[in-house]
């Protein structure tokens, strides 16, 4: 069980909470393969999905996760909402609160916006990604994918490569994977590595060949141009040459190292397309599969004490 109202980030999750989520996700993972997961535990629960930013993986998997558990799902159509008429985020939160939802799943382009809403509503709030702050469900599914593929989730050497500066995935993964007892290296051009990131307990290098030596897990990040307000690299061609993951650079990692990418990926920019499709090393498809189980586990655990679940 999670003794908390909301899931806003991995920074404030304990190691025990992280393990309880991925342990339950392991059960849901097996049930998903057997298609035996229609437990109905969320039968009386209303889940509203509010995505103020585009999403494929997170939005669809939260919708399927809630559906599989029996929740009543409302996908909030932002294009038709009163936000376009100037309604503030706090007024929107108060409006939704008055309709008695049980869970809000929120993605927002501004860091901190999801927490702000969570403070104004009575129900549970799940952060589906806020600005470059946190994307906790991505980090949890990444941890679960690593454990599934390598058989353990501690004592590993993990490289997070590329656009760390604009990445909520990087931040959530650093907090989560450090708590689980792994060592983290961030690799990228100086312009895309935040100053002072060493204070998170990570090693920094700007050279992929040096950085990938002896690495168990290579996590590649998307270049997040939608968050860039200037020139951070000369050209995509040059970026790929120095920082794109290709066969030549991958040779420096351990022979059984796995390749991860949160998606959506830019083939030929941050990762070579053939490497992304190499099922012996790339776990990118498995990350999406595990994402469904992780989101089922989180919905289940966050609502475990909900009074409407007593009769189920
Ligand atoms: N990884 C991730 O958050 O993907 P989406 O933007 O498609 O949800």
Write the layout of secondary structure elements.
Layout: H1 15-34, E1 46-51, H2 57-68, E2 72-75, H3 89-97, E3 103-108, H4 113-120, E4 124-130, H5 136-150, E5 157-161, H6 168-179, E6 183-187, E7 203-205, H7 208-211, E8 217-220, H8 236-243, H9 247-250, E9 258-260, H10 273-276, H11 284-302
Parallel strand pairs: 1-2, 1-3, 3-4, 5-6, 5-8, 6-7, 8-9
The chain binds phosphoric acid mono(formamide)ester.
List keywords for this structure.
about 300 residues; alpha/beta; Rossmann fold; 2 domains; five-stranded parallel β-sheet; four-stranded parallel β-sheet; 9 strands; binds phosphoric acid mono(formamide)ester
In a nutshell, what does this entry contain?
Helix content is 37%, strand content 14%. With 312 residues, it is of the alpha/beta class.
Detailed description of the structure:
With about 300 residues, the chain is an alpha/beta fold. It folds into two domains: about 15-135 and about 290-310, 3-Layer(aba) Sandwich (Rossmann fold); about 135-285, 3-Layer(aba) Sandwich (Rossmann fold). Helix content is about 35%, strand content about 15%. It contains eleven helices and nine strands. The strands form two sheets. The protein has a five-stranded parallel β-sheet. Strands 2-1-3-4 form a four-stranded parallel β-sheet, with helices on both faces. Helix 2 (about 55-70) crosses helix 11 (about 285-300). The chain is globular, with a radius of gyration of 19 Å. The relative contact order is 0.17. The mean pLDDT is about 95. The site of phosphoric acid mono(formamide)ester (CP) has 9 residues, from helix 2.
């Amino acid at each position: 069980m999670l003794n908390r109202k909301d899931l806003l980030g991995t920074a404030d999750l304990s190691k025990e909470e992280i393990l309880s989520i991925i342990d339950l996700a392991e059960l849901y993972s097996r049930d998903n393969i057997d298609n035996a997961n229609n437990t109905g535990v969320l039968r009386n629960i209303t889940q509203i999905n509010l995505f103020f930013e585009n999403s494929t993986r997170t939005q669809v998997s939260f919708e399927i996760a809630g559906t599989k558990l029996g929740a009543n799902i409302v996908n909030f159509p932002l294009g038709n909402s009163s936000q376009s008429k100037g309604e503030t985020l706090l007024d929107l939160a108060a409006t939704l609160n008055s309709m008695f939802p049980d869970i809000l799943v929120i993605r927002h382009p501004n860091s901190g916006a999801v927490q702000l809403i969570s403070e104004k509503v009575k129900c549970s709030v799940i952060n589906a990604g806020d600005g470059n702050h946190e994307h906790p469900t991505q980090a949890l599914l990444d941890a679960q994918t690593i454990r599934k593929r390598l058989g353990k989730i501690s004592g590993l050497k993990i490289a997070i490569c590329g656009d760390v500066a604009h990445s909520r995935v990087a931040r959530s993964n650093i907090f989560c994977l450090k708590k689980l007892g792994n060592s983290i290296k961030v690799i990228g051009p100086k312009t895309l590595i935040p100053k002072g990131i060493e204070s998170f307990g990570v090693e920094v290098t700007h050279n992929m060949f040096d950085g990938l030596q002896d690495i168990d897990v290579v996590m590649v990040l998307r270049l997040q141009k939608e968050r860039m307000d200037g020139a951070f690299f000369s050209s995509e061609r040059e970026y790929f040459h120095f920082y794109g993951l290709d066969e030549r650079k991958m040779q420096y990692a351990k022979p059984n190292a796995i390749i991860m990418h949160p998606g959506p990926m830019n083939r030929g920019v941050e990762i070579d397309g053939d490497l992304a499709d190499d099922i012996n090393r790339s776990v990118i498809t498995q990350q999406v599969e595990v994402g469904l189980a992780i989101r089922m586990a989180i919905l289940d655990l966050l609502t475990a004490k909900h009074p409407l679940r007593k009769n189920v």
